[in-house]
Every structure is written in C-alpha cells, then in structure tokens.
Design goal:
There is one protein chain. By secondary structure, the chain is an alpha/beta fold. The chain has two domains: 9-281 and 400-473, Nucleotidyltransferase, domain 5 (2-Layer Sandwich); 287-382, no CATH class. The chain is built from 15 helices and twelve strands. The protein has helices at residues 22-35, 71-84, 122-130, 135-141, 159-177, 188-199, 206-216, 224-231, 239-255, 277-283, 301-306, 321-352, 368-377, 405-423, 456-473; strands at residues 15-17, 38-45, 87-97, 103-114, 143-145, 182-184, 221-223, 263-266, 291-294, 379-382, 433-434, 444-445. Strands 1, 2, 3, 4, 5, 6, 7 and 8 form an eight-stranded mixed β-sheet that branches. It has a two-stranded antiparallel sheet with strand order 9-10. The protein is globular. The chain starts with 14 loop residues before the first strand and ends with a helix.
C-alpha cells in the first residue's frame, strides 16, 4: 500500500476562549449554539477518581468507587469526585447543516479556572501536561468561575471574576435554552462535571440526575462510543481511532459518488489570538508512511484496540493510528487475496479431476480457519524512518494533540455526523444511551422514571434560565 492512498487528516481549527476573550466572544458563541443542528462537547478535569487521599481528610474511600457495578453507587462516587475536583477546559463544537448539504463547524476551546478550593489528582494533571495541555496558560488566562448556580458568591469582591463566571455559565445555559441534541464520547463524567460546575449542585440521587438530564436536553444525548460499538462490531472505539476511520469512510463515499460528509470550519479571531495556534498546526502535520511485509505486526495491538498502552513511549511497536489503519486495511486485503487464490485453486482442481461443481453453503462466509491462516500468512511493518510519529500514549513532541478539549469535541461531532450519513435513521435508537465503562452492552439509559422527579437544583436553576430569557425579550 502506497502512502499516497492515505487520506489527509482534517486540520482542526478552533478559537481559544480565555478570561481576556470571553466577553467579546460570548455573543458569537451564543449565535452558533442557536443555529446549530447539534452540539458536541468534551471536557478536561483535575481528576476522575480519588487516589491516595490524605488520612487527614477523613474520607470514606468506599464512597468514591467510580468503578462500582451498581449505578447508584457509581453515581454517588462520580458526584463526590466532581464536587471536590474541577474542570480545566470545555471543548464545544457546533455543527450546523446548511441548505447546500455542508456542515459549518465552529470549535471553541474554553480554558477554565475554578475559584473554589479543589483537589488535584497528580496522575490526571500529568496526563494533561504530557498531552499538550498548557497549565501555565490555564493559571494565567483561565476563565474564573465559582461552581454552582450563583455566579457571584459573597466572598468574591472582584467584578471581573464575577463577569467571567456569568458569561461562561451563560454558554451552558444557551445550550439548554435552545434544546439542541448533545453529542459526547464516553461522556458520563463530562455530564456530571458540566452539571456540577455550571448548572448547580449535583442531586443526591441518581434517579433525579437522570430525570434532570432528560429535561435539560429534550432533543437527546448521543454517545458516539456506544454508537460505534453497536454499529461497527469488533472495531476499536476510542476517539482518535474512530475519527480517523470515519475520515477514511467519508473519503471512500466521496470517491464512490455517494453522499459524504463535507465540512467547513471557521475560526473567530479576536484581538488576542490563540497563543498555541501555530504550534498546534505544526504538531498536526502528518508524515507519509509506506507499508511492507514482515513476520510480525509492527503496531501495538493493545493500543490499536483500546487507545492506550502501559509501556507508553517505551513500547517498541507503533502507536500511529494512520499506520495502524493502513496495516489493518492491508491485512483485510491480504485475507481477500488469499481466499480468492484458494477458491481459484479449488476450482482448477475440480475442473482437472472432472468433478461436478457443487454449491457450498458457506460461500458467503469464509471458514474461520482460512481467515486465521490468511491473517497469519502475511503481516505488515512500518518502513524505517527517523521521525516516528505517534498519536496517543507517546511523548513524541511531533505527535498531534488529541487531548485538547476543542479537538476532541470536533472529532466527536465528526464521528456523529459520519454515522448519521452512513446509517441514516438507524442512529435514532441510540438517543439517550450512554456508554458505561466495564458494561459496554448495558448502556446508561437517560430516561425519566415515573417514580422520580426533578431535583431542587433543577427547579432553582431553570428559574434563573427562564428569567434571563424573559429579560432578554424585554
């Protein structure tokens, strides 16, 4: 397979939203939310579990088990984490389907700095730093806000801080006001953090939390991880892999003159341009790869399946998603070629012996033994190069940054739009079904129960949202 067959990756264009730009950008963000066909989000935060808490805190760690199998226990643990940790960024992508069939996309990278005292999980912060998150920028330019529905707590004497909190919170309120479909990727924690940070204190019960979500987002919540696992059985489902796979699918659809995903991205430029824009573009450039034959797979199979590898940069095999996809396509082609050769050989043998051609019941489904034989007969390796490119699980400075919240939100939206084009109305069955870690076949259902009701937080905050809308109309 020649490198020329590889589709070029889409350059993600986004606008940084900081404490210096939130004011001039707030009206533009609100406008794009109001016009969007759907909205995709991603968040980054200071922890997703409680690790090695100091005994001086006196915490019952049993209440912090975010891997609990019972959903009520899991929710209680996730709520504890979100109440004690903080969001550091919110990625927001608005996808607007135009009359020409194109999606017009705006990506916003909101850098946040919660003012409430909170915990920081060293592993989470280290992960962010290793994947390009600028902690210095977050400390100096993060949008300052206080968690909860009241953006102006008594202890804050700064009008600037209060204004930043009001404007950022209004972005989330706009998403609720305009009742747009919300798209996430394995995003249960995103929803929990978003609620706690900008909507109000999380409800005590899991049932009330779910009830509130159905009212906040009546157009539905879609999880692209769960969708991909059900629509594309047997494939990896981590974000970067799915994004690049769907890029290839859309290129193939375009080449076959089928309906395909065409997008146009727009950056909103303000006086303070994103400081990391140029470095991000440089990191996002792709190097060509040639594929050749070898006796072993040259890519990390664990990374290819799950998006991470315990050896990280010490792993001897490639973590380059483009290369992995090239290899997997080559493997698939090799299987087809081997099966074709086997069939031709069998046909020739039958004709030579004068045997009568018999119809096989398994013509449409090759025997598993032949598939394994074909897979084991030919493998691919990356040709020698001095500038190895990786995507995730690597410390390579040239690797694209996929843990920028805006980039992740864009990729999430792209996957959703791609699945929408490929599968049509079939995606409607995935409304309000969220992936559950460790229980992928049993999604979390976002649906109101007859035995539950909205929380006190919902009633109080929705009154604020409605009063603001009434003031805007006046």
């Amino acid at each position: 397979m020649q490198s020329s067959t590889r589709p070029s990756a889409t350059q993600v264009i986004y606008t940084d939203v900081t404490r210096n730009t939130i004011s001039p950008l707030s009206s533009d963000i609100s406008k794009q939310i109001s016009q969007a066909s759907f909205i995709a989000i991603d968040t980054e935060f200071t922890g997703l579990s409680l690790c090695h808490a100091s005994p001086a805190l006196g915490l019952n760690t049993a209440d912090w088990n975010t891997r609990a199998t019972d959903m009520r226990e899991m929710y209680k643990a996730m709520a504890n984490v979100a109440k004690s940790h903080a969001l550091v960024s919110l990625g927001l992508s608005t996808y607007t389907h135009t009359s020409t069939g194109m999606f017009h996309v705006y990506n916003f990278n909101c850098i946040l700095q919660e003012q409430n005292t909170h915990f920081i999980n060293p592993a989470s912060v280290s992960f962010l730093a290793q994947n390009g998150f600028d902690l210095n920028k977050q400390a100096q330019l993060g949008i300052r806000f206080f968690s909860g529905p009241n953006p102006m707590p008594l202890e804050s004497r700064s009008a600037d801080i209060n204004l930043e909190g009001v404007l950022m919170r209004n972005v989330v309120f706009e998403m609720i006001r305009h009742k747009k479909p919300l798209v996430i990727h394995n995003g249960l924690f995103d929803l929990v953090y978003l609620y706690q940070s900008f909507f109000g204190p999380l409800p005590d019960s899991y049932e009330s939390f779910v009830f509130d979500l159905t009212k906040m987002f009546p157009a539905g919540i879609y999880d692209t991880k769960f969708m991909a696992e059900k629509l594309e059985l047997g494939t990896a489902s981590f974000l970067a892999y799915l994004y690049h796979k769907n890029e290839r699918i859309q290129k193939q659809r375009r080449d076959q003159n089928l309906k395909w995903l065409f997008i146009k991205q727009t950056e909103i430029v303000v006086k303070e341009k994103p400081s990391d824009a140029e470095s991000h573009k440089q990191r996002s450039k792709k190097n060509a790869r040639d594929v050749s034959l070898s006796s072993e797979k040259p890519y990390c199979e664990h990374f290819a399946a799950f998006g991470h590898c315990k050896y990280n940069e010490q792993c001897k095999r490639s973590h380059d998603i483009f290369f992995i996809l090239d290899c997997q396509e080559k493997e698939k082609n090799d299987i087809s070629e081997n099966l074709s050769i086997d069939n031709e050989a069998n046909t020739s043998s039958d004709q030579a012996n004068g045997s009568t051609k018999r119809k096989r019941t398994d013509d449409a489904s090759p025997q598993p033994s032949k598939i394994l034989k074909a897979l084991n007969s030919k493998h691919i390796q990356q040709s020698t190069t001095n500038d190895q490119e990786t995507i995730e699980g690597s410390g390579n400075a040239n690797a694209p940054v996929y843990h920028n919240a805006a980039c992740d939100a864009f990729m999430t939206g792209y996957i959703f739009a791609s699945l929408q084009i490929e599968h049509g109305d079939a995606i409607n069955e995935f409304k309000n079904k969220i992936f559950r870690v460790g229980r992928g076949s049993e999604p979390l259902l976002i649906q109101a129960s007859r035995y539950s009701s909205s929380s006190t937080t919902y009633k109080q905050t929705m009154k604020i949202i409605k009063d603001q809308k009434r003031d805007d109309c006046d």
